[in-house]
Specification:
Order of helices and strands: HHHHHHHHHHHHHHEEEEHHHHEE
Number of strands: 6
Oligomer: single chain
Shape: globular
Number of helices: 18
Length: 411
């Protein structure tokens, strides 16, 4: 998360504590993340799947080379979000490595932030102290630079279009295009005269010209930054968890493969990449994805809330106003009375065992994506990516926990 030299942080949907600010940030863009709107981006996901499969075939399949699938799942998640947001991949898949230090930046932030969440006074001293922040310098700059560069490039295209020098093609109706349109046309987007003045050359004296962000672009910058941070890393973590456990438990990957073959025989599956409508309701695929979501939430620290004035009673305990109360999704997702005595184990069948009402109870008990007004906006995007990728990998490749053996040629 970018912290400026004044010790302030970039306001975003995930981290803003001010309820009025959170509403102003979230409400204008929330409809974009509905399931009906999310699936309109499916073609973008297919584009990245095509690149991933090409790289796997070219680099590993013919030679039977052992490789770390987890890295490539992470690259996939980042390039999907880049394509959804900018109509352009970051280049993780083509290069087969971190790009612009984005993965390193996020990892370093998370490892730094973890202890601060448990030692609030140290956070106030080190992160939010103006003097220390001035000496330390700005953080999160590399990703903010990526965001700014893409926005600047898009603005040039828009300017050219206004002059009649070009026309933005329909496929460029990505999320950034919609963010910019909302900022211009939605009156509920705040003027950002105060809190988003953070995005200025005074706060970031080392900014390049593209990072000196105009007032009208500050909200799209905050939204786009959130897409990169929350939308990519978290999906990559769950993808790695799901594929690892499928490979570590061969009976489950075999059952999933049989379900996909049955679906192909009875209702037709598009090859090589099944569509969302073809796989979204497959019971065992759904169970595997949900079990991955449950077992390893990307953010395992407490989701904190501040008790309002007057206090509140929770489970018979009174907490005075100002008290910080939090629940860890890692702990909540392993609640044995809800998920069973084997809650620490991978067992997708738990999602199918006791009917629709039990399944609904399990769904509502998983805290991975948060809950209430702060539930993750990108949840539907994550499920679109995960169901399409896991189905495509299992259907098209013979996979072992050592390597991808070969591409199956059954279509």
């Amino acid at each position: 998360m970018p912290f400026s030299k004044t010790g302030s942080a970039l306001p975003a949907v995930f981290n803003t504590r001010d309820e009025a600010m959170h509403k102003q940030l979230k409400n204008p863009i929330a409809p974009m993340f509905s399931l009906s709107n999310t699936i309109t981006h499916e073609n973008f996901v297919n584009q990245v799947l095509q690149v991933l499969f090409h790289q796997l075939d070219r680099r590993f399949v013919d030679s039977h080379t052992t490789f770390d699938l987890g890295n490539w799942l992470q690259y996939f998640a980042f390039d999907v979000m880049g394509t959804l947001t900018f109509s352009k991949r970051y280049g993780f898949l083509e290069k087969g490595q971190d790009v612009n230090g984005m993965l390193e930046t996020i990892w370093n932030y998370m490892t730094d932030a973890a202890p601060f969440t448990q030692i609030p006074w140290l956070d106030d001293l080190w992160r939010k102290n103006r003097l220390v922040a001035t000496l330390r310098g700005s953080t999160g700059f590399s990703i903010l630079q990526v965001v700014s560069d893409f926005i600047g490039e898009r603005q040039q295209k828009v300017h050219a279009n206004e002059k009649g020098e070009g026309k933005v093609p329909p496929q460029d109706r990505d999320m950034l295009s919609r963010f910019l349109e909302i900022a211009q046309t939605n009156e509920s987007v705040p003027p950002w005269s105060d809190k988003l003045a953070f995005l200025s050359s005074r706060s970031f004296p080392v900014m390049t010209p593209s990072l000196t962000i105009s007032r009208y672009l500050r909200a799209p910058t905050a939204w786009t930054f959130s897409n990169i941070i929350a939308g990519s890393d978290s999906t990559g973590v769950v993808l790695k968890t799901t594929m690892y456990n499928l490979l570590a438990h061969p009976s489950t990957v075999q059952r999933l493969y049989e379900e996909l073959l049955t679906a192909e025989r009875t209702q037709h599956l598009t090859r090589p990449f099944p569509t969302w409508t073809e796989v979204c309701d497959l019971p065992y695929l759904d169970a595997c994805i949900n079990e991955g979501v449950r077992l390893h939430p990307p953010f395992c620290l407490p989701f904190e809330r501040v008790v309002p004035d007057g206090g509140i009673t929770v489970c018979g305990h009174f907490f005075s106003g100002g008290t910080v109360v939090g629940m860890s999704p890692w702990v909540v997702n392993r609640h044995r009375p809800t998920f069973g005595e084997d809650a620490d184990r991978w067992r997708p069948e738990r999602w199918l065992a006791q009917g629709a009402e039990h399944r609904k109870k399990l769904d509502s008990s998983v805290l991975t994506f948060g809950a209430g007004r702060r539930v993750c906006l990108g949840k539907n995007i994550a499920f679109l990516e995960m169901k399409k990728l896991v189905a495509a990998l299992v259907l098209n490749y013979e996979v072992s926990n050592r390597l991808l053996l070969h591409r199956m040629s059954t279509y």
